[in-house]
Amino acid sequence: MDTDTRTGSGSGITCRHAEDGTYLTLWGEVDAALRESASEAMASLAGRPAPLPVVLDARDVTFIDSSGIAFILQVYMLGQETGAPVSLLDPSAAVSEVLEMVGMGGRIPVISAEASG
Questions:
Q1: Which helix H or strand E contains 115, and what residues bound it?
Q2: Which one of 12, 68, 70, 100 is most buried, counting C-beta atoms within 10 A?
Q3: What is the domain extent for residue 73?
Q4: Confidence of residue 5 (pLDDT cuts 50, 70, 90)
Q5: Does residue 6 fall inside a structural domain?
Q6: Contacts of 18 (CB under 8 A, 6+ apart)
Q7: DSSP readout, 16-74?
């Protein structure tokens, strides 16, 4: 089940499953207003049959609050529990700064879009 429903909205969270893993894309202001999108993405992620890699694309996040960081940490924890590697794709400064503030800076591997292909 794909929940990739970007509709030109200024903010959002989508989930797309592929043969090589699952891609979660976050953009704009990732805050409590996206709770429903985050829940749908998490349900889709939790329903995957195999522990494939998960990539969180956070390049276009302009603001993130505690609920947005909680979503990223939930994805990371699910990966830890299921053995699925979780990485951040070129996280924006907004995401990196808040992860540093909560003591998670450097804990989630970061990959570069250039290196990933």
A1: helix 113-116
A2: 68
A3: 12-116
A4: very low
A5: no
A6: none
A7: EEETTEEEEEEEEEESGGGHHHHHHHHHHHHT-SS---EEEEEEEEEEE-HHHHHHHHH
Q: Which amino acid is at 40?
A: E
For the sheet with 21-30, list strands across it.
12-18, 21-30, 54-64, 86-89, 110-111
Segment 46-65, tens digit of pLDDT = 888 778 999 999 999 999 99
CA 116 from chain center: how many Å? 16
d(CA 80, CA 32): 24
Tokens of 115: 């290196």
Residue 85 in domain: yes
Supply 50's token pair.
Answer: 């195999």
User: Residue 46 maps to which CATH number?
Assistant: 3.30.750.24
In a domain, 111, yes or no: yes
Residue from 62, 60, 88, 92 nearest 75 by CA:
88
Judge if pTM exceeds 0.85.
yes
d(CA 95, CA 35): 17
